[in-house]
Amino acid sequence: QVQLVESGGGLVQAGGSLRLSCAASGRTFSLHFMGWFRQAPGKEREFVAAISWSGGSSTYADSVKGRFTISRASTEATVYLQMNSLKPEDTAVYYCAGRVFSTYIYWGQGTQVTVSS
Predict the structure, then answer these.
(1) Can you give the C-alpha Rg of the chain in angstroms?
(2) 73: pLDDT confidence band, cut at 50, 70 and 90?
(3) Residues 49/35, Cβ–Cβ less than 8 Å
(4) Beta-strand (E) ranges in the chain?
(5) What is the rounded distance in angstroms from the CA atom of residue 41 to the CA atom of residue 111?
(6) Strands 10-13 and 111-116
(7) Mean pLDDT, the chain, integer
(8) Which residue, 2, 48, 49, 108, could crosslink 6 as a Cys pair with Cβ 3.0–4.6 Å?
């Protein structure tokens, strides 16, 4: 099993920045990718970004490309999501997820991000 704990959410004005963290523990050696997803009120959960556990490759949703950066320090079992130039439409609960092969099977509890206009 893998446990994921997110932190770093909060309230920020439009144009501001936040950095989310996701600390992984347990059988982290089983992970192939780590991802960030978000869910806004009344909407389905959507993909935001993902990074290979080795940190060698990453991918982003078009809506955040150029504004968000996903990273992982090689010495830490922690994945970060640096969010810049935040917009009100980025408001959502952000979830960290761990992927084994092609399926995200481990999920954190979520952290709220609110961007005010």
Answers:
(1) 13
(2) confident
(3) yes
(4) 2-7, 10-13, 18-26, 33-39, 46-52, 58-60, 68-72, 78-83, 92-100, 103-107, 111-116
(5) 14
(6) parallel
(7) 95
(8) 108
d(CA 48, CA 46): 6
Residue percentage of the chain with pLDDT more than 70: 100
Identify whether the C-beta of residue 67 lies closer than 8 Å to the C-beta of residue 89.
Answer: no
Across the range 53-68, mean pLDDT stands at 94
Chain centroid, CA 62 distance in Å: 15
How many CA atoms lie within 13 Å of 69's alpha carbon, on the beta-carbon side?
Answer: 9
